[in-house]
Write a structure and sequence with these properties.
Shape: globular
Structural class: alpha/beta
Radius of gyration: 20 Å
Number of strands: 6
Length: 285
């Protein structure tokens, strides 16, 4: 008897799944139409802070200090600016850019009030993971940090440069982490012991959650249902707008029926791979 892998029917990342749950039309604009979006200061700041925290752990443990993190900030910003010169156009002048960098420094200082990096030795950083479900749907994404205890327990850590959500929005925040936990469970056969969101905005906060198999099975059912809804929208051409307060930050208002706009004709393109070869700024908040 020959064992065969299921045929891959599509791919989904937690960010794009979140887009569809937020607004199916936003998902269409980003994934099907692949419309360009202007970089936002908040998203790019998240990218820079993530890069600093990733490289902080390249240093020997005793050298992982606030000062060392702050010294990494300017080089990482210049590296990103070299890769994406358009990031420099986000600012009206040098003063505005300086204020933006100062906010990033505040987030890095806040990180040290939430974790002690001198006592941590991450097993993985910026880990790309993917797993194919029995249905053929591929789940994939990037995990900020994976900690593995000497006894084998796994902790999945994600940095967020926004403020911690209120109790009513915690479930939405944890969806991304359960998505990663599901992928790791399918890959490694063990449920991660702890999911940890480290919020560097506002006053700083750490949100922790211990998943179990029932959680991850429920997450798998939710992801499968999302994919069915995406396929239905693709077949019918009905990509509904879902107005919310997040509309204020959307680049596509001029094309949105909720704002008097008309979406362009749907291109003849399948969703396909919804994760880029490296993270986009929209994934970092």
């Amino acid at each position: 008897m020959t064992l065969t892998e299921p045929e891959i029917i599509g791919a989904l990342s937690p960010s794009r799944a979140g887009d569809f749950m937020t607004c199916p039309l936003l998902y269409r604009f980003r994934v099907i139409d692949q419309l360009p979006e202007k970089p936002s200061q908040a998203a790019v700041r998240g990218t820079v802070v993530h890069a600093v925290l990733e490289r902080l752990y390249d240093l020997p443990a005793p050298r992982r200090s606030v000062e060392a993190a702050l010294e990494l900030l300017e080089p990482q910003w210049q590296r990103l600016l070299g890769e994406e010169p358009a990031f420099g156009e986000m600012f009206a002048d040098a003063e505005e850019q300086a204020a933006w960098l100062a906010q990033a420094r505040d987030m890095l200082r806040r990180y040290f009030t939430l974790e002690d990096p001198t006592r941590l030795e991450p097993a993985e950083r910026e880990l790309y993971v993917e797993a194919v479900l029995d249905s053929g749907l591929m789940l994939r994404g990037y995990v900020d940090r994976l900690d593995v205890a000497p006894t084998g327990e796994v902790r999945v850590v994600d940095y967020k440069t926004g403020s911690a959500p209120g109790p009513d929005f915690e479930a939405k925040a944890l969806f991304q982490m359960k998505f990663y936990a599901l992928v790791l469970w399918r890959l490694r056969g063990e449920v991660p012991r702890l999911l940890q969101l480290v919020y560097l905005g506002g006053g700083g906060e750490v949100l922790r959650y211990a998943p179990d198999e029932a959680d991850l099975r429920a997450t798998e059912r939710k992801v499968q249902a999302l994919w069915v809804a995406i396929q239905r929208a693709l077949e019918t051409g009905e990509w509904r707008a879902r107005p919310s307060r997040l509309c204020d930050w959307c680049d596509h208002q001029s094309l949105c029926p909720e704002y008097g706009g008309t979406p362009p004709p749907v291109p003849d393109r399948q969703p396909g791979d919804t994760v880029r070869t490296r993270r986009s700024a929209t994934d970092e908040l």
